Amino acid sequence: SAQSPLQPDRSALPPAGPPTELNDGSWDISELMCGRTVRPMSGDAFAEFERAGWERAAPRYEEYWTDTVLFVEPLLDAAGVRAGSRLLDVACGPGFVSEAAAAHGAHPVGVDIATAMVERARMRCPDLTFVVGDALQLPFPDASFDAVTMNFGILHVSQPERALAEVHRVLVSG
To answer: Which of 17-31, 59-73, 126-140 has the lowest mean pLDDT?
Structure first.
């Protein structure tokens, strides 16, 4: 039978490579696109790609992504953030969630993998705390926060399940 023009010719792909969590060796998740083999990025390559992209985007973030502020209040409500809450704002970007949480009387700490984003947040909200850190290895002790938010950040971490495990670790139980 003839190869569909929408399906890559898998016979032209090189071997899948060593088994990984995504590729147990029994199938190949690569694709042949425009004559080139495209493989998924490793976790480290994905994380570096994201960090570098947000370093570049930071100076003009507000020009392009202000629509994320539409979700801040519902996010804080869903997380149960109240006056006095200790909030960790993961992937904080320019600090929109931290800023709104502080306006409600919460005590936010923002963390982002991109230094330029942390600097931007500090510039916008000089009275709040922002630190450089990785969602996959949060730089905080266990049970440090009453609530944790991540406004669209989960899409930008290489291992979402590991990031959520870190969120669970830093949350106070209950």
So the answer is: 17-31
Rounded distance, CA 68 to CA 57, Å?
15
Whole-model pTM over 0.85: no
Q: What is the DSSP letter of 164?
A: H
Show the tokens assigned to 118: 């942390």
Pairwise CA distance, residues 93 & 95, whole Å: 5
Q: What is the pLDDT of residues 117-150, one digit of tens each?
A: 999 999 999 999 999 999 999 999 999 999 999 9
Terminal-residue alpha carbon distance, the chain: 59
Whole-angstrom CA distances from 29 to 44, 69, 122, 127 are 18, 36, 41, 47
Hey, what are 172's tokens? 């106070």
3-state secondary structure of 25: coil
